Amino acid sequence: MKKFNLQQLIIDTEFRRLFFNKSNEKIKKLKTSILSNGCINPLHVWNGILLDGYDRYEICLDNDIPFEICEINFKNRNEVIEWICLNQLNRKDLTLKMKAYLIGKLFLTQRSLGIKKGISGNDIIKKIAADYNKHTSTIWKYSMLSRKIDELADDYTDYINDVLAEKISVPYYKMCKLTAEAHKYCRKSEILKLEDKTVHAKIKIMPDYDPDADLAGLKLTIPSWIGSIERVRNSGNFEKATNNMKIQLMSALKELNSSVENILKLMEENCNE
Description:
By secondary structure, this protein is mainly alpha-helical. It has 11 helices and 4 strands. It has helices spanning 13-17, 24-37, 54-63, 77-88, 96-117, 121-131, 136-153, 157-164, 178-194, 213-235, 243-270; strands at residues 2-3, 43-46, 49-50, 68-71. The chain has a 4-stranded mixed sheet. Helix 4 packs antiparallel against helix 5 (96-117), helix 5 packs antiparallel against helix 6 and helix 6 (121-131) crosses helix 7 (136-153).
């Protein structure tokens, strides 16, 4: 551990997004403590990139308070993301959306790491489902949510932060349409700023409870999967594709097939004909 130049740490936006923001009250208490006692706990760093303690770092930076760092060795970004997700999922103050995002991100990351180690995505999704007491189909749904949030985060940062903090209510089945909602939200925020209004704009999507909502959302996405599979099947490029890509695709298809079998079994058990 060593004292570190306050200006040299890098904030990686993807890593930062994995941290649930503290309340203003908690940040005030943290600032009071650091101003009185200094920054007691070290900040974890990988290749000059800050991996935790973002609020502590900002307080130290603003008040010229030195801090210690602890370098951690990781082979790649996926190992970093896995480490952050596992640590963050131990927090008790996560919203359901933030927890879902982290679980989805953890699955996608561990699947990428697992492919290189010969571990099937099916085994990984089963373990994560067991660890967090969820059905494998739920983990798959969370992974799609995670992809969509990462896709929008850079262009619609405030909107995504409010979705994860559950200041905006967006059902899971509407996540596939987040782009349009994000644009509406940000456009409304811009208008309010131009009008010098101090009220923060928020779109409240509060539909009545619909037991068919998640199923309907899944049903709508299936045709696009079928279309993609048919395009690949009919393209005739299998001989030209690399073995590595074929293996990765086979693993993903087996994983998809397993998820389909699991949800079909669940539907058969709960279907009243």
